[in-house]
Write a structure and sequence with these properties.
The structure is a single chain. The protein is α/β, with parallel strands linked by helices. It has one domain: TIM Barrel (Alpha-Beta Barrel), CATH 3.20.20. The strands form four sheets. Strands 1-10-9-8-7-6-5-2 form an eight-stranded parallel β-sheet. Strands 3-4 form a two-stranded antiparallel sheet.
């Protein structure tokens, strides 16, 4: 799995381009993509008309799955608990007038409520998950992977690290941990067979096991912190718990992307990746600073940034590694060559990417190593034919 975070449903030709560039997944966010929802006679009704059309088109073009973030960054808590907030705003059950957004934020952020979703929203989100899972299966959508919200391990940074652009926000703190865990229980209750994902911003930040505490809550443990005060055995820990390791990153330059998503992440045995972010910015207006983008789509085409080329090369490297492993799985000498390369990759970190708060872009000390490693594996494969 490889995909970037998008602000909404992208054009069909953009999906086709992404798949050709080794991206078979995508990361949707509830704030930018959700089925129509209303409550009629006390029952939640969802309208999938628009999403069904897009999902069929995406499946046809090779999109295999997507992670759906049902909430955003904990720095904006509780405002960024998107699905719970929106369920509250449409809920007239019992003859009650739905609260305003500010009223809900104040209520959810109160000390007595902040540790978990409130009961009225909890009930509705369980039903939302149930309906989405059943509908996606019936309509043969790409795989739906759900997560309550983004980067729950930020609970360790609090209390009250807050994005003040959100009115009434209290931000991150110890309440984030149980809120995420209960969110996972809600998803599991609504759809026991659906995979639950977690973006784990820290593994053992300040030696308090901040991210490790979520291993049993998620099926896909995705971290950008594999080398933070390092925990080189995070892959083994996740797999020992019966779950799947993914890794996420960002970047500015092609060599960062190629190294990170390629040989470096392969050295941990991870099976997928996310990139922050694909089109999170103001398009062609790059004069302001929050341009988290590596492609621009027009009505007719997709224009890749140089970073996108690095991502494509990274997953070509991963294809070579997978092919090599299948070919030589029982050849100890050949596997020693691969393991030696992966060991070198682990020790070839540049200066970047060691601070998951301020700089999580993996970097290599010498980019010429990348072609040398790939060629070494390819030459062995060619010689074995």
């Amino acid at each position: 799995f490889m995909g970037g975070c998008v602000t909404g449903l992208v054009p069909a030709h953009d999906i086709e381009f992404a798949v050709d560039y080794n991206q078979n997944g995508m990361n949707l966010w509830f704030a930018g993509c959700q089925p129509g929802a209303k409550i009629v006679n006390g029952k939640l009704q969802l309208d999938f008309t628009y999403m069904d059309e897009w999902m069929a088109s995406a499946r046809k073009r090779g999109l295999n799955g997507f992670v759906w973030f049902l909430g955003g960054n904990p720095y904006g808590f509780p405002n960024t608990m998107s699905i719970f907030r929106e369920m509250s705003l449409i809920d007239p059950r019992g003859g009650r007038k739905p609260p305003s957004r500010s009223q809900w934020v104040k209520l959810q952020g109160a000390k007595e409520n902040r540790n978990k979703p409130m009961p009225r929203q909890r009930e509705l989100v369980v039903e939302w998950v149930r309906q989405v899972a059943a509908h996606a299966k019936a309509k043969n959508w790409p795989e739906v992977i759900l997560t309550p919200f983004d980067e729950p391990a930020k609970w360790i940074q609090g209390p009250n690290r807050v994005n003040k652009s959100y009115s009434g926000a209290i931000g991150t703190g110890p309440w984030i941990k149980p809120y995420f865990k209960d969110g996972c229980k809600i998803i599991r209750e609504g759809a026991p067979d659906i995979r639950i994902y977690g973006s784990i911003h820290h593994i053992n930040y300040r030696r308090r096991g901040s991210g490790l505490s979520f291993i049993d809550d998620v099926d896909v443990f995705c971290t950008n912190a594999a080398d933070e005060r390092p925990d080189p055995k995070i892959g083994e820990k996740v797999r020992a718990a019966g779950h799947t390791l993914w890794q996420y990153s960002g970047g500015r330059y092609p060599d960062q992307a190629r190294f990170g998503y390629g040989f470096f992440f392969a050295s941990f045995g991870s099976r997928g990746s996310l990139h922050w972010a694909y089109n999170w910015g103001r398009g062609y207006d790059t004069t302001e600073g929050s341009n988290w983008m590596y492609a621009w789509h027009t009505a007719f085409d997709t224009i890749p940034a140089p970073l996108y080329e690095g991502i494509r090369e990274a997953w070509d490297d991963r294809r070579v590694i997978e092919t090599y492993t299948k070919k030589f799985a029982k050849d100890a000498d050949a596997m020693a060559v691969l393991n030696g390369i992966l060991k070198q990759a682990r020790s070839s970190r540049g200066r970047g990417g060691r601070d998951t708060v301020n700089d999580f872009y993996t970097a290599i000390d010498d980019a010429t190593k990348l072609d040398k490693w790939r060629d070494k594996l390819l030459n062995r494969l060619v010689a074995a034919k």
